[in-house]
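Bench notes, afternoon.
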Amino acid sequence: MSSFIITCPNCNTQFEPGDSMREEIQKELRGKMADWQKKKDEEFRLKENSLLLQLQAKDEENRKQIEAEKKKLEEVIRKSVVTDFENQLKILQQTAAENEEKLKEARKQQLEFLQKEQALKTREEELQLTVQKQLLEEREKLKEQLQKEEAEKLSLKEQEYQLRMKELEKQLDDQKKLAEEMRRKSEQGSMQLQGEVQELMLEELLQATFPFDKIEEVGKGVRGADCTQTVRNQFGNEAGKIIYESKRTKDFSNEWIEKLKADMRTLGADVAVIVTQAFPKDMDRFGEKDGVYICSFAEVRSVALLLRNALLKIADAKKSQDNKGDKMHMLYDYLTGSEFGEQWKAIREGFMSMKLSIQRERDAMEKLWKAREKQLEKVLLNAAHIKGSVEGIAGADAINLNLIEDTDPLLLD
């Protein structure tokens, strides 16, 4: 290597560079390059982490694109660092003139490197902006897709709900039709069976309500009412007879009345009752029509009780008329006899004794009441004096000294 002289720009001292100086310059340059490369690697790592965090939500295509860009940036940085380092080594190995030229070239390259670094930063920022824009676009697309999927799910749920409602409505209509069919079949059932069921319930009801009466069922095929009730008094004697006809149809027939009246004459009954589900057109509840009582099954207990009590009273009245003449003579002899006179005398003496005792107690209480009334008047008079004195001193509204309320009716009398 040819020798050359280096002139100091400050003191114009000329000297020849040695190996130690070259090594020191190389060491210094290597250190600076290492620090710069470390700093750039750290910045690149931070930017790389930031890009990785921002690009996690992107799909595989965007990640591949960013990875490619990252590799390109790494390659550019590595090539730039290696080129600059090699240029610096070549500068130290050339002559003084070449060294000066190389220094200028190094400054030029350093300037270019700084420009490249600035361009790289600008490119990184542009890339970051591009990535942000792409992320926003992808986020909007994903949001629209999610909204679309959610709308489709809601639409499917709405369709399922409508289908389910239609199924329920169909099931409900089917159930209504089935119930209507069952009701129609039930109504079309045997009218005779329905009537027999009501007859049995009527007999059980009468037997449970009047256990001492005689309830008899009229057999099938036998002319007459459905059942008879023989009314008995407390001594077991017969007081009358009630016959019942049970009907469970939709329409009332006036022929039932004439038939039951004929049965009543045949059986020697006193009262006839028709227990029916349908009433005549001029009736809507219990009543009497052409000498026959008509009621519903819900009213039959009350109707039977009223008619039975009426028969018992009629029987008692009839019984009291038996042997009326003999009873009149016996009653006259008893009232004019000494037994009745002595008993009445004893009653009169007891009455007079009780009356005198009550009068004495009344006189004593009136005397006591008068004494207490005088005491009360004295208390009220003194209280009125005190009240007048206090109101004259303190005023009428200062204190309430009333012993009684103005509206008390008992104390104002």
